[in-house]
Amino acid sequence: MESLAEKDMIACPYNKEHVMLRRKFQQHILKCREIHKDTVQLLVCPFNNAHLVPEPEFHQHCKSCEDRKIIVQYQTSEPAVLHADTRHEKIEADENWDDDEVEDYNPQVYCAQANIVREPIGMFPSERKAFIKEEERRRRGDNYDEEEQGKSKSRAESRHTPYNPNQQRSKRSYK
């Protein structure tokens, strides 16, 4: 009776002195194939890529390959029968994703229209203040616009205008 270690070991078809674990076989074959590509010509079995056979034995191997029965069984088995409960009618979609007339999705426009909290990221301080003010106005809705207009008029009337050198000033007469 073979021990567990002997079952798991396999010899390399390129060099019989190379013995390795089955799980390392594919990795080893890639290396050995490159080393012995000019000296040893082996053909790959169509039923199992791990079977590398010399050309004179290839035809006989294909007839008696252990993995052949899996393919033959698949080819000769009856196709699966579809019952009435597994079939369904073709589903027609109402939308056409290939339509070019639809506008592209713009997340900034959507966020500005929807009730989504946005934050001023990567803005200068003056831009940030204006953005926050606009966001407050947007969040509060139409009622806020009317209140803000009333407040801004009273503030504007009480404020003095800053100095503008291009503005014409009235001439005062000093006595």
TrEMBL record:
Record-annotated CHHC U11-48K-type domain positions: 9-36, 42-69
Pfam family, one: zf-U11-48K
GO MF entries: zinc ion binding
Keyword Transmembrane found: no
Keywords: Metal-binding, Zinc, Zinc-finger
Record field: compositional bias (Basic and acidic residues): 127-160
Keyword Iron attributed: no
Segments of this protein annotated with the region Disordered: 127-175
The protein, known as: Gametocyte-specific factor 1 homolog
Source lineage: Eukaryota, Metazoa, Ecdysozoa, Arthropoda, Hexapoda
